Every structure is written in structure tokens, then in C-alpha cells.
Automatic annotation (TrEMBL):
Protein name (database record): histidine kinase
Keyword Metal-binding: no
Transmembrane region(s): 6-26, 184-206
SUPFAM superfamilies reported in the protein's UniProt record: ATPase domain of HSP90 chaperone/DNA topoisomerase II/histidine kinase, Homodimeric domain of signal transducing histidine kinase, Sensory domain-like
Alphabetical UniProt keywords: Kinase, Membrane, Phosphoprotein, Transferase, Transmembrane, Transmembrane helix, Two-component regulatory system
Domain HAMP per the UniProt entry, residue ranges: 204-255
Annotated EC: 2.7.13.3
Magnesium in keyword set: no
Length: 477
């Protein structure tokens, strides 16, 4: 399935589900919202009537007043009003009044006069001084036949002498609910369709842009000369630039030639030494000289093997795009393990070693790579530390960053070499033997630190050199 189609389907699913849930929620709120608004109006009406009817109820003349006639005339009125596009042709309120015992004194429908309504919540609660309201079905099996009743107390000097109730059937509100729901559904569907059209356009544009970049990469891989697709900023422009830089680097023959030339140069010296020693060994010579030449062959072979192994390790790291086996390891235990492995060299040189990395500290890393990196640093430090010198491992925290620090006592690194220490094949002569290493150790360390999101820093300090492996704070706990 193409990327554009997948993006559109995900977008369609997201917009569809979001629209559905929003519309469902809004529709669920329309009906109670309309009824709540109507109930508020009924409350006002009931309290107004309570004040109007107070004197007649108090005097007991409600039945002889003009109110029954007025309520009958009210029920026969035809408003002929148009409310937001809906015609209203009849009034829907029912009004009834009870005395302090709940007996109906007046009913606009003429049905309940003389009946005891004290059991209904609107009358019952109001007579107790509480808010009285109820919703009752006119037809038991028909939920749409419910009628909303709201009551208000008729007061005389703070005493409840009666109750007036205003009732309105919910069916009279249904046209307004239906119209509101219909408009919301139409609007919601329109917005969803518009969103899907925009999503389809975005998916088409993104897929088209990626296809252009894909065609460019395929043409480059086949050796064709094509122009780089142009994008106006954003991630696609960054990606196009990265592809172009990759092309430039892959075509960098000068870089490859320099790499091969340097490697050939590094191998030439040990090969020449091995060849010379082997030629001399073919003739007669004292046993002492024979042993010395054999030892030279062995040491140069070991040097070549070390060079090849480190090149392989470096090549593997350079081809990595990320870490593969991340685990939490105890940093102090890893350092201790490497120090134990170098016990013979440390003791023979009489070195002083101080390990100050806190035991509880744990590091999230790829253990093999991190162990190799620290081992390279330790080997370099041992090479450049004079007999009886000092080595110090510690954990530093500076400006919100964390670093594993290794200090070794010894001569300062020349200024001309400080900026080149991590270059491939660059090395300084060892103080003891005057020989150089493969020049791959610090380059390997730098690559490992970049994979872990950190960096390598080497600096001269008082009486020695300090190397720091800067690590992201979230990797150290």
C-alpha cells in the first residue's frame, strides 16, 4: 500500500472517529440543554403566578374569581408565531393550583379540581419548602409523552398557603430539538468532508514530494545525472539536502584515496620490518640475534593484527545508525573490570590508581561498545603515564552535563596535536618506546560517543592530561 494512501487512511480514521464522538456528544447535550432552558422559564412563570394568585388563595375566593375563565381562554389562544422557522399554533402550558394540603383548587385543563395532588413531587416538595419539579409520562409506555412540571409556593407572611404548578409537554420541544440536531449533523458532516478533502490533498502532496525524492535517489544509485528536487524549506528540504550530501560523500573519491593511502602507509612499515627480519633469518647468525629478529616479526605481526582488528571495529561503528543492545550497567563495576584486566601493567609500572566513580551509578548504554571505548582510553593513559605516576577515574557533573573522566599524570599533549587526536591513523610516539599506535583508538571512542549522544573531550591539565566522555544526563542514573 502506498504511503499516501496509508497517510490518508490514518487521517480518515482520526477525523472520522473524532467527528463521530464530537457529534454524538453534542447531540446528547442538545435535548437536556433545551429542557433545562425550558425548565428555567417555567420556574419564572410559576413564581410570577404565585404572586398573582396569592390574594385569591388567601381569601379562598380562587374558584369565584375570573381566573378559571381566563385560563380557559388562554388554552384556546392561537399564537400563530414563527420561531426560528418553526410555526407555533397553540399554547401548551397547563396550570393548576393546590391549597396547603395539596388539594387542587384550580386546573386550567378542568380535569383535576378537588383531587389530592400532595403525593406528586412538584406539590409534595414545594409544601416542604424545597424546589418542586417532576417529569411524568401521560402514556406509561410512551417516553415521548412525558410532561415537565415545575411548582412555586404561594406565600403569606413566610407561610406556605398553596402551590401553583406550570406544566409543559416535552413533545412541544421536540421540533426544536430535531431541528438543532439536524443542523449540527449537517454542519458536522460538512466539516468532516472538508477535513477529509484537506487530508487527501495533504497526503497527495506529501506522497508526490517523497516520490520525487525517491526517483532522485534511484537515479543517483544508477549513476544518472539528475537535478535535486527543490523544496521550500521544512523537513523535506532538509531531507533533500541530506541525500545530496550523502551523494557527495559517496562520490568522494579523494576521501577514499586518502583512506587507502594512509592505510597502505601504516601497513608498509610493519611489512618492511617483517620482510627484512625474515630475509636476515635465512642466513647464519648468532642465536641471540635470531631471537631478536623473531621477536621483531612477532611484535610487528601483532601490530598489524591490532590495526586490522581496530579497523574492523571502527568500520562496524561507522556504519551504525543507532544502538542495538542498550542496557543499564554499573559504571563503577565496568571500570573496575578494565582495571583488573590491566593489573600486570599497572603493577609493573608502579602506578597509583584511584577509582572514584560512585558504586550506585548506572549507565544506559551498549555495554560492549562502551567497554571498548573506556578500554581504549585506559590503554592510552597507561602508554603515556610515567612509572610511579597517577591515574584517576571519576564522575564529573558540570553545567547540567555528566562526564566519565580519566586523568593521567604525564607530559602535556603538544598544542599542534590536540585538535587531531581523534583523526583516523593519527598518533603520537609513546614515551617509553618511541613507537606510535594504530591511531584508531580515539577515533573509535569518538564514534561510540556519538552513537550514545555524547562527545569526547581531551585537554591538558596541571601535571597531566584529562579525557572526558560527556554523556546525556538521561543516560546516567
Amino acid at each position: 500500500m502506498r504511503l499516501g494512501i496509508r497517510i490518508f487512511l490514518v487521517y480518515f480514521l482520526f477525523v472520522g472517529l473524532t467527528g463521530y464522538f464530537i457529534l454524538s456528544t453534542v447531540r446528547e447535550q442538545v435535548r437536556p440543554g433545551v429542557r433545562q432552558s425550558t425548565e428555567e422559564t417555567l420556574v419564572d412563570t410559576a413564581n410570577l403566578l404565585a404572586e398573582i394568585l396569592r390574594d385569591e388563595v388567601k381569601a379562598g375566593t380562587l374558584g369565584q374569581s375570573r381566573l378559571p375563565e381566563l385560563l380557559k381562554a388562554y388554552g384556546q389562544r392561537q399564537p400563530n408565531a414563527e420561531i426560528w422557522g418553526l410555526a407555533k399554533t397553540q399554547v401548551n402550558h397547563r396550570i393548576y393550583v393546590t391549597d396547603a394540603k395539596g388539594v387542587v383548587l384550580l386546573d386550567s385543563s378542568g380535569e383535576a379540581v378537588g383531587q389530592d395532588y400532595s403525593r406528586w413531587n412538584d406539590v409534595y416538595l414545594t409544601l416542604q419548602g424545597r424546589y418542586g419539579a417532576r417529569s411524568t409520562r401521560s402514556i406509561a409506555d410512551d417516553p415521548d409523552s412525558s410532561v415537565m412540571h415545575v411548582a412555586a409556593p404561594i406565600l403569606d407572611g413566610g407561610k406556605i398557603i398553596g402551590v401553583v404548578t406550570v406544566a409543559k409537554p416535552n413533545s412541544s420541544l421536540q421540533p426544536y430539538v430535531d431541528r438543532s440536531e439536524k443542523r449540527l449533523v449537517n454542519l458536522g458532516l460538512g466539516l468532516i468532508v472538508l477535513g477529509l478533502l484537506l487530508g487527501a490533498g495533504l497526503s497527495w502532496w506529501l506522497a508526490r514530494s517523497l516520490r520525487r525524492l525517491t526517483h532522485y535517489a534511484q537515479a543517483v544509485s544508477e549513476g544518472e545525472r539528475v537535478a535535486l528536487p527543490h523544496y521550500r524549506g521544512g523537513e523535506l528540504a532538509t531531507l533533500a539536502g541530506a541525500v545530496e550530501r550523502m551523494r557527495t560523500q559517496l562520490e568522494g573519491k579523494a576521501y577514499v584515496e586518502r583512506y587507502v593511502h594512509t592505510l597502505t602507509h601504516e601497513l608498509k612499515s610493519p611489512l618492511a620490518a617483517i620482510r627484512g627480519a625474515s630475509e636476515l633469518l635465512q642466513g647464519p647468525m648468532p642465536e641471540e640475534q635470531r631471537q631478536r629478529f623473531a621477536s621483531n616479526i612477532e611484535s610487528e605481526s601483532a601490530r598489524m593484527q591490532q590495526l586490522i582488528e581496530r579497523l574492523l571495529h571502527l568500520a562496524q561503528v561507522e556504519q551504525r545508525h543507532g544502538l542495538e543492545d542498550q542496557r543499564q550497567v554499573e559504571l563503577a563495576a565496568m571500570v573496575d573490570e578494565l582495571l583488573v584486566a590491566q593489573t600486570a601493567r599497572i603493577e609493573s609500572a608502579g602506578l597509583q590508581v584511584r577509582q572514584r566513580v560512585p558504586a550506585p551509578v548506572r549507565l544506559l548504554c551498549e555495554p560492549f561498545l562502551m567497554r571498548q571505548a573506556i578500554a581504549n582510553l585506559l590503554e592510552n593513559a597507561l602508554d603515556f603515564t610515567p612509572p610511579g605516576g597517577l591515574l584517576v577515574f571519576e564522575l564529573e557533573q558540570l553545567e547540567g552535563r555528566v562526564a566519565l573522566s580519566l586523568y593521567n599524570q604525564g607530559e602535556a599533549i603538544p598544542d599542534y596535536a590536540l585538535g587531531r587526536l581523534s583523526e583516523r591513523f593519527y598518533s603520537l610516539p609513546r614515551p617509553g618506546s618511541g613507537r606510535k599506535s594504530t591511531g584508531l583508538g580515539l577515533n573509535f571512542v569518538e564514534e561510540v560517543m556519538q552513537l550514545h549522544g555524547g562527545s569526547l573531550a581531551v585537554a591538558n591539565v596541571e601535571d597531566g592530561v584529562r579525557v572526558r566522555l560527556w554523556l546525556p544526563v538521561n543516560r546516567v542514573s
